[in-house]
Amino acid sequence: MFILFCSTFLFVLFSDPFVFKRIMAFKHVLKLSSINAFIDDNKIIKRGENALESSHVKKMEFDSDLQIIRGEVFASMKDKSYKVSIVLEQNGDIREATCICPRGIKCHHIAALALFGHYRISVTDKACAWNAPPKPKDGPVKCAEELYPPKPYTALEGGVPEASINRLKERLRSFGNTVGFTWLLNEESINPLENRFAIIEEIISSKDFLEATDKVSVFRQKCAVDDHSIKDIAATTTGQVSNEKWFLVRKFRLTASNFGAIIAACQRNRFPVSLFKTLLGEYNLDGIKAIQWGRTHEKDALDHLKSNYNLNIRPTGVWLSNSGLLGASPDGLIDEEEAIVEVKCPYSLRNNQLSEKLKNLNKYIIFYDDEGNLMLNTNHHNYYHQIQGALHILKKEKCYLCIYTLKETIVTVIEFDDSWKENLSVLENFYIKQYLPKLLEN
């Protein structure tokens, strides 16, 4: 019977060109091999498969022009969802992916959406969208434990005395490490570095914060970090976008790249919805070509600085203010000069000669005046606020600003501006009075 079925299927397949073309036409945009290569973690892929089988993918959109998959994936065992974005190369490989969950990169939410896209999107598809069917309105489904709660049970009445537990521990330790259970009885080691990782999302979901009458005071206390912790966090988050902890530390903090927009909003006393969407990471794919261009050519700019200016530049991570509310991630440090490095690779100027294009272009961070002098825009430019914010947070004396294009590279030094210091309190005040309420709503 099986042989007869196979023979019939092959006859229909090859005798009818229309059927053959329809079957062969479905070529996956996102291949399983690409997902495996990007995630590179079987446990995460397995969790993604479980999430997919459990219908945790809430919605999915595919933009065939930009090769971007966007979607929402439910959190495990929680009544909330995370926004996920996946950017593809033209050959179907995953270029980068982000998720607003605490893990941030290469999480099982990304794996679930990628697997969902693998089965749903073909190369012939145009822009498409998919939404999960609405949930039944009969109320939440209860699990077996809720319907039939277990009866209270204890193996011993009155519990076990602490002295008996200690005697058992000592007895087991006397056998050395031959008892496999011994390591569980060791005193819990406290990793001071982990304790100094003040993750904002963990703070606002902690019991102390939720039960506090003065939530602002508790929040400030939990976010605060000392100088030693700041250095440890910066060292542990070195690598930036390639380091998962870099995302965790930055998440829901005000980082230097957004200082200019926040300061401008505070000066106008107007706080548009778009500002909060930016701070909450909802616009993480805007200008994706410019972002990718900058990441691709940042190394070229650093190599130019090293070779032409004989600078010893070392990579670094996230540096926090003592309040723990503000952060900065310079592109490098120059310890010998108490300096930082900031690289800009403007996508719009990538094929231009900067010395010509920046003549009287006083809307950019630097420009040339009529006499050919290189001028610095200190008034309203976001890059200036970003650099001064980093200098104040890191307590450095100057910044080497490197503007890189394919035709020309310009390097200028921006000195520490003591008058900018008042903006730190403006930013922290904005966080507590404007941003924190929005964060709790979200």
Automatic annotation (TrEMBL):
It holds the Pfam family SWIM. It comes from the Eukaryota. The keyword Signal applies. GO terms for molecular function: zinc ion binding. Residues 82-118 form the SWIM-type domain. Keywords: Metal-binding, Signal, Zinc, Zinc-finger. Residues 1-25 form the signal peptide. The keyword Membrane does not apply. One of its GO terms (biological process) is DNA repair. This is SWIM-type domain-containing protein.
